[in-house]
């Protein structure tokens, strides 16, 4: 595919009008001091690097290619921020702040529900945990020797209060 002066090439080889390209894409670090135009490989490398950072910061975004990103309804606004020097992943965060917040809130809510459900088998069935601590027969006999006037209820209450 030929690359004329009105088109740039996506990393996957498809053409895109240069008028839609962010300035940062056109001004890469590899650019020579003499002001030579960046090559298609340099532009593609820059786009892949920016896309990699986007996917690293927002792995749940579902974006897999620059072409896919440019088909999204927020692409124009995203390019607006990106062309002004904002890194692509930050521009994505700005443009999709509400959606990202909602996704994270829903994920946290689901995590909490899953945590609650996973511990449901630990609930005691009937009675309190203290009621399950019975006084051993030997200890009950010792209580009766030391406190002959105490009822069984008083002995159990005193025994449980010590543990």
List the helices and strands and how they pair.
Blueprint: E1 7-9, E2 15-17, H1 23-26, H2 40-57, H3 66-70, H4 75-82, H5 88-95, H6 97-118, H7 137-146, H8 152-161
Antiparallel strand pairs: 1-2
Helix pairs in contact: 2-5, 4-5
Explain the overall architecture.
This protein has 163 residues and is mostly helical. The chain folds into 2 domains: 7-100, no CATH class; 129-161, no CATH class. It is built from 8 helices and 2 strands. A two-stranded antiparallel sheet has the order 1-2. Helix 2 (40-57) packs across helix 5 (88-95) and helix 4 (75-82) crosses helix 5. The protein is rod-shaped.
| Helix and strand sequence | EEHHHHHHHH
For the sheet with most strands, the description reads: 2 strands, antiparallel
- Unreliable segments (pLDDT under 50, ≥5 consecutive)? 1-9, 28-32
| Structural class by SSE content | mainly alpha
Strand content: under 5%
Cα separation of the termini: 81 Å
Q: What global shape is seen?
A: rod-shaped
Radius of gyration: 34 Å
What is the spatial order of strands in the main beta sheet?
1-2
The percentage helix is: 40-55%
Average of pLDDT: 78
Please give the number of β-strands: 2
Number of domains: 2
> How many individual helices?
8
């Amino acid at each position: 595919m030929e690359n004329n002066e009105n088109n740039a090439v996506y990393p996957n080889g498809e053409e895109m009008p240069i008028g839609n390209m962010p300035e940062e894409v056109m001004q890469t670090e590899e650019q020579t001091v003499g002001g030579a135009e960046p090559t298609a490989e340099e532009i593609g490398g820059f786009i892949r690097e920016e896309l990699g950072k986007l996917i690293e910061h927002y792995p749940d975004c579902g974006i897999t290619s620059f072409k896919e990103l440019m088909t999204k309804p927020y692409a124009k606004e995203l390019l607006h921020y990106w062309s002004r020097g904002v890194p692509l992943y930050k521009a994505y965060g700005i443009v999709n702040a509400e959606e990202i917040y909602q996704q994270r809130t829903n994920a946290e809510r689901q995590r909490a529900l899953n945590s609650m459900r996973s511990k449901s088998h630990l609930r005691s069935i009937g009675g309190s945990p203290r009621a399950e601590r019975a006084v051993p027969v030997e200890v009950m006999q010792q209580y009766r020797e030391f406190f002959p006037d105490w009822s069984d209820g008083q002995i159990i209450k005193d025994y449980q209060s010590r543990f």
